[in-house]
Structure formats: C-alpha cells, structure tokens
Design goal:
By secondary structure, the protein is of the alpha+beta class. The protein has three helices and eight strands, in the order αββαβαβββββ. It has two domains: 71 residues, RimP-like superfamily, N-terminal (GMP Synthetase, Chain A, domain 3); 55 residues, SH3 type barrels (Roll). The protein has a five-stranded antiparallel sheet with strand order 7-6-5-4-8. α2 links the parallel β2 and β3.
Length: 143
C-alpha cells in the first residue's frame, strides 16, 4: 500500500488535492504536515474535515514509528516547489530559484514539463533542468 496514494484519496473525497507531505520538527515536537490545495482556496473547515477523516486512517497506518502531531494546511501563497506537478501548476507565477552553485534567480515561470522549467528573467528566458535546482518557491510581491 502506498501511503501517499491513500492519503490523496481521502483528500480528493473532500474536493481537494494533496500537494505534498512533510515531516518537520518544531519546538522538540515532530509534525507530520499534509499540505492540500483546492480551487478557490483552502478554508479552515476543510482542513478540520480532512483531519478528522485522515486521523483514524493514520492511527492504523502510521506515517512514522515515532510520536507525531498531524497538521493539515494549505501550502500558502508563497510555497515550495518540489515535484514537476508543483511547477506545472505554478506556471504564470513569480518564482525564486536557488541553483546548485549557490546562484539565485528570480523570474516568471513560463513553462514546466517532466524534465525542467523555463523562467522569464530580466535577462530573458532561462531554462533549467530539475537537477540544477536546489530550492524553489513561489513568491508574492506585496504592493
């Protein structure tokens, strides 16, 4: 059984989509974070509903052997881009990239496929394979 596939099914049954899962430690507490997206936005009631449905499933199929706290949330307006599908869904948004050599690039994500991305920078279009990217995230310019 693929745990992520099962989690995605529970989330999809509630009209949302699984964005990603992550394990983080905050204040000596391990958190299993499930990030969900939905057209029109993710509301608190949706997170609560998914949590109530996902919690008993994870009691039977725990995502890790240690104690953890389950957290359901939206990835936010400024979110990490990790999987090709994240990049594909972010086409048209502004992104910040950190490359393998430590260089940083900002621009508008214009295309993405299973091999890499293209962004429009001040210098013109620049293409990158996923292997060249270290960390990537969308960003929002507050006016």
């Amino acid at each position: 059984m693929n745990l992520e596939v099962q989690i995605a099914k529970i989330i999809e049954a509630n009209g949302a989509a699984l964005y990603d899962t992550e394990v983080v430690t905050e204040f000596d507490e391990t958190i299993y974070r499930v990030l969900v997206t939905k057209v029109g936005g993710v509301k608190l009631d949706l997170c609560a509903t998914i949590s109530h449905e996902l919690s008993p499933f994870l009691d039977v199929h725990p995502p890790m052997s240690q104690a953890y706290r389950l957290e359901i949330s939206s990835p936010g307006i400024e979110r990490k881009l990790v999987k090709p599908v994240h990049f594909k869904n972010a086409i048209g948004e502004k992104v910040k990239l950190k490359l393998g050599a430590g260089d940083k690039v900002k621009g508008l994500l214009t295309s993405a496929d299973n091999d890499g991305i293209v962004i429009e920078t001040k210098q013109g279009e620049e293409g990158f394979t996923y292997g060249e990217l270290n960390t990537c995230k969308t960003y929002f310019e507050w006016n």
